[in-house]
Structure prediction request, 287 residues.
Amino acid sequence: MNQDIIRLYDEYTHAPLPRRVFLERLTKLAGSSAAAAALLPVLENNYAHAAMVPENDPSLEIERVTWDGAGQPINGYLAKPKGGTNLAAVIVIHENRGLNPHIQDVARRIAAEGFLALAPDMLSPMGGTPADEDAARDMIGKLDREKTIAGLVAAVPYLAGRPEVSGKVGCVGFCWGGAMANMMAVRSPDLGAAVAYYGSQPTAEDAAKIKARVMLHYAGLDERINAGIPAYEEALKKAGVNYQVFVYDGVNHAFNNDTNTARYDAAAAKQAWERTVAFFKQNLMDA
Prediction:
């Protein structure tokens, strides 16, 4: 796909652009309205593909939970191995489109690896994630950032206090959730491990507060996010944080999202996922 089209879609999902403007610019790049219409199903997420681990997998238990997110109730999707005890827990933080079927599937994938996985719906204070992705994106932009981070941080003691959890908790986030995973590492001294996929970086002052072990995944073509890597890495080194950084050449932002044909890269996603699971097992199960 033309990289200018990928950049336009990235601007649409993150700037954000009004859909009317996005479609006008897409039509110009594609050459016609018909060509633009043909590109849309490739550019936009298709949640029919979001079932790498089926929701009815007999080896898992699924439930909906609610906890006190620093003064506001937060709802979440919880998946765990059936009958599991002494489980390490992982918080799965969604992209800027809210808690959707893809992120629920990611939670099931983590549960299938032997963890208790909790995917919060951070739009809970606004009534929860809507079906309309553009509406979800707009709602994300209206969240109170400090309250949102506090709500995520509150999930750590909530999970650590559950009877089937060992007390060890980590987090993984994607895109907007990657930025939140970085901030969880900053704000939660009890967090054991944090993984951020193509997430914007905290300030050097905040990075110095990190106690958790950190793994960072970036897309080689993601100029917008990658501009912050050098300063973040320098701050992590200066603070003595145990961290790893991986940049996957030739792939786009959101390369892990297998419901997005235009940006998903199977090889990079597989490698990043294997590194992520091994990182959690080493730092939450074996530590």
